[in-house]
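Researcher: Batch entry, complex prediction.
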Amino acid sequence: MPNVSFTSNLNRHLECPDLAVAGETVSEALEAVFESNPRLRSYIVDEQGRLRQHVVVFVAGQSIQDRERLSDMVTDDQDIFVMQALSGG
Amino acid sequence: MSDRLYVGTRKGLFVYRRGGDGTWSVETKSFIGDPVTMVFPDRRDGTLYAALDLGHFGPKLHRSEDAAASWQEVSIPQYPKPDVEGEEAKALKMIWCLEAAVGDGALWAGTVPGGLFRSDDRGESWTLNEPLWDDPSRTNWFGGGFDDPGIHSIAVDPEDRRRLVLGISCGGLWISEDDGRSWRASTEGMYAEYMPPERREDPDIQDPHRVMQCAGAPDTFWVQHHNGAFRSTDRGASWTEIHPPPSKFGFALAVHPRDPKTAWLVPLVKDECRVPVDGKVVVARTRDGGESFEQLVNGLPQADAYDCIYRHALEVDKTGDTLAMGSTTGSLWMSRNQGDSFKTLSKHLPPIYCVRFG
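Model: Structure tokens for the complex:
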């Protein structure tokens, strides 16, 4: 199961511990996280499901390509990091 | 007289409290580091709302039951998926204003991009006003100050909560008589110098920077517009230009709660310059419905001052005597005598977005 980690800066606003979840895409993995932590959703994606402009997601060290639908594939042994972009400061 | 002042800034919310000796000092600080785009003390039940625009993590709304001592995050307005395939799906960028109806009516939110939302459960859920969102003229609106148009002013009629007046930059001034079920633009008398001549009086593209109603004499409205200041004595049906010195451009407006002929504006150099004329911070006050103005300067910087007062950063309290004013350079002033003299509360706050008395 991929492990999802979040920037520690989110801890200013809400708790979001690392979580190992099922999912074959970034979207599926994040949906699984949001299911257990509903308040987190609006911090990462907008109401249309798109990644927020100043949030970046890395899979195995590479930033994802599909910021609209988060369809990038993820395997069980890969880590997902949800970070803040420097552009939003 | 109000004894609390809420100051929303680029880097947090500051609550000022008036002491027994009449002096004001910071009582509470909240959300330090986060932009607070609007704060709304709901006098109906004492609830305080704070709208944030987190740089990375989007707009948020928080609610306090104890005057900012503690907070609970509540829901934010959400935009629908578009009906037409290919149309861009909108997302909330900012809560720009919050107002409440009289009695047990709705909590209203004006947003960027161009949405009006209502909540009937104190921010637990929100509903988009579809009649306005679906109005064909919305495609003519455009950004004013932000990339997208936004609703910054919501005046709920104190005598009839079904009557709403909105100010939209840039989308004109809109009136509903039926609790938002239908809308009409009402800008007769306003004009837009920033448009081609044939569209100068087009209602959809007027840019009212701030719209306010006199609570005690609700036939009277005031508008600080991009191209001048205007007043209406027929509940917004028609508008007459007034001429505050030293400039007709500005954002901020305060309206006396009972006297329909008294209002305050803060003129700036037009259009994109947006600094005080000659580096002097001036408040223009009229007591005769805009026939004449006084330029109030006592206690305000009169040399090399580049304070801009945003549209929500000037307020008069319910007595009509106490004014608060905050600037983009973090200056905060208070007047206890309708602006005859101002006292500086701070020169060092973050850029101030809004001030509201509790």
